[in-house]
Amino acid sequence: DIKGTSLRIILDSRGNKTVEATVILNSGAEGICSAPAGASTGATEVIPFRDGRAEESLNFFERNVRESLKGFNGFNQTGFDNLLKNIDGTENFSSMGGNVSTALSIALAKAVSKELGIPMYRYAGGNFRMKAPKPIGNVIGGGKHAINGTTFQEFLVSNDSSSFLEAIEVNALVHKRIGQKAKDIMKNVSIGVGDERAWVLSISDEQAMQLLKDSANEIAKEKKVKVYLGFDAAASSFYEKGKYVYKEKKRDQGEQIQYIIDAHKNYGFYYMEDPMDEADFEGHAEITKAIGKNALIVGDDLYTTNASRIRKGIETKATNGVLIKVNQIGTLTDTWDAVKTATSASMENVISHRSGETTDDFIAHLSLAFSSTFIKSGTIGGERLAKLNELVRLQEEIEH
Ligand code: PGA
Ligand code: ZN
Predict the structure, then answer these.
(1) Could you tell me what percent of the chain has a pLDDT over 70?
(2) Residue 103 main-chain phi, psi, to 5 deg
(3) Cβ contacts of residue 139 below 8 Å, gap of 6+?
C-alpha cells in the first residue's frame, strides 16, 4: 500500500517551474517522477497546472490529494489513476493540473517496479518487447521552440543502426555536420540553438531541408548506415484564419497538402508529424492516402495521446502513426489506453519528450513497454540524453 506521497516544485530545462512527485510504499520502495512541459501544446491536451501555475497545483495537492492517496493499493495502477481523476473532478485535470497527475502516476509505477525488483519497462503496460526503438531527434528547429527560426518546428534525423549507442551518435554527428555547414554558409552570423538544442538558422524551410539532406547523406556514407529524414511541422502553430502562414507566402489546405507531398518526394522525408492543423483529420487523411505506404505520418497535436481522438483518426484513416506524451492525457493508464487503441489498428507509436524537459528518463522505459517504433528525444543536451543514455543501458539488458 501507499505509505505516503509528496510533491515539490523544481525547474525544467527552460528554467520554468514544474513538479516532481515522490511515492513511498509501505515496504519502503520509492518512486520519483518529474513532469515535462510543452510550448506548442495541442488544444485538446489536459491543463498542466491549476490556473497555469505550479504553486497553485502544489496547494491543491496539499489540500485535496495527499491524504486521499494514503493507504491505497499501489498495485492497482488503474484504480490509482482513476482516483486522481475523481479527486480532480474535471475532464482535463484543470483542478489538479495534468503535470501533477502525470508525476504521481509514473512515480507510483516506478515505486511498484522497485518493490517487485524489476525495471519499470517490465511493469508499465506489461507488453514490453526485447528490442530498442530507433532514436529520432531534431537538428534544425524553429516554430515555437526558437526565435526567428524556420516555420516548421523541427527537422529530424534517425537511422537504422541496430546499436542504440551508434544510432544516437549518428544523429549527433548529423547535428554537428549541420552546424559546420551552417557556419560556412552564413559567414559572420551568430548561430544558436532552440529549446531542444536543434540549430536555429535564419534560412527558409527549403534551405533547411536541403541542408538536412546534404548533411545526412554525408554522415550516412561515412558511417555506412541508412539515415531517415523527418520533420514536425507543428502546423497548428502557424495556421491562421484558414491559411498556413509561411514567411514567404500563405498556403490554403490544398496547397499545404501538396507542399507536404512534394517535400516527401523532393527530399525523401520518411517521418512527418502534424503536417496539417490539429482539427483537420481529412487533410491528414489525404496525405496518408497519397504517401502513407512509404512514409510515417504522425499525429501529435492531432491526437494529444487521447484514445477517443485516436479512434477518430482510425475511422478517418488520418495517419499511420501517433505521438505519445504522458502529460498530454495525464495518467499512465490513459496513455496505455491510447497506445493500445493505436496498436490495435496497426498504427505505429512514437514516444516523445517535451520541449521543456527534466532529467527524468521514464520515456526510455515506456518506449519498451509500448513497443514504440521511435523515441523522440532530441540529439544532444543532458535532459535529452538522460533518456537516450538510459536506452543504451537498457539495450544491454534486453538484447543480450
Ligand atoms: P512541445 O512540442 O513539447 O513544445 O509541445 C513538441 C512537439 O510538438 O513534438
Ligand atoms: Zn509535435
Answers:
(1) 99
(2) -60, -40
(3) 155, 156, 157, 171, 174, 175, 178, 198, 199, 212, 215, 379
In a mutational test of the pocket of ligand 1, which residue from 354, 374, 384, 387 has the highest number of ligand atoms less than 8 Å from its CB? Answer: 354
Task: Give the binding-site residues of ligand 1, using a 6 Å CB cut-off.
Answer: 38-41, 153, 232, 234, 300, 352, 354-355
Q: Per-residue pLDDT tens for 113-135? A: 999 999 999 999 766 677 899 99
Nearest-angstrom CA–CA distance, 299 and 352: 12
| 295-331 confidence digits (pLDDT tens) | 999 999 999 999 999 999 999 999 999 999 999 999 9
Cβ(296)–Cβ(268) below 8 Å: no
Residue 97, Ramachandran bin (φ over 0: left; ψ between -120 and 50: alpha; else beta): left
Sign for the pseudo-dihedral over CA of 104, 332, 115, 113 = negative
pLDDT tens for 166-225 read 999 999 999 999 999 999 999 889 999 999 999 999 999 999 999 999 999 999 999 999
Alpha-carbon dihedral angle through residues 334, 337, 342, 345, given to the nearest 10 degrees: -150
Alpha carbon 228 to its chain's center: 18
